[in-house]
Specification:
Shape: elongated
Number of domains: 1
Number of helices: 11
Helix content: over 70%
Number of strands: 0
Radius of gyration: 20 Å
CATH topology: Growth Hormone, Chain: A
Distance between the termini: 79 Å
Order of helices and strands: HHHHHHHHHHH
Amino acid sequence: MARSPGFLQGIMLLLPITLAVMGVSLLTTFVPMINEHFNAVPHYAYLIQGGIVTMPSIWIVLFSPIAGWLADRFGRRNILIAAMIVYAFVGIAPTFLDSLYAIIVSRMGVGICESIVMTVSTTLICDYFDGKSRERWLAGQTATASLAALIVIPLGGVLAGRYGWRGPFYVYLYSLLLVAGVVAFIWEPKPSATGDLKASHTSRWHFRGRECWRSAASRSWRLLCSIPSSRRTPMRWPHSVCTMPSASGS
């Protein structure tokens, strides 16, 4: 008997969008503490703003098409679970890394995992639901992202004030709770193909999958942009990069 997705499946596919919000918003309130810790590193302000803070968003956009291909190749559920597990460990990496450059690499990993999570969870919503039901769940992603930002931003500040700048990174372990929910309540969508129609149904299902993850890739950036601009940390370029030599060469 075929399983029918319902409210629980929709919720379990909405919650992963909060992981992308965490990557963008969690650090915004305690960036000055990170600056103070790494102030001996050349161009530390640029590396922190452009590397630690912004790097996940960059990789969400760059990796989304590859994430869609991986979902088609290895299965949506499998790649979603794998990405959420890796996300937890690369997310907490700054708690024990002392190199600013190593932390930037870990933040690249966070962005790649977020890209997979956002793209595949959106694709699964398209696979599970149709018509107005699908539209409601997709609209719910934007609402969930905005609500999560209102919680994550002050949470980062509270944890940093109590445990130092490394403390908030433990919040990334939250993704392991979502893994348990996905394992329990999400299944791999399969084409309802039988008999002579199997090839035709399978072809249509793969075409639908490609359309879903292409749409998901374009939605990823719009979801990130739904976070209020006033909450984002401004980029500060190092003086030596911004300052042009004078005409006299001094």
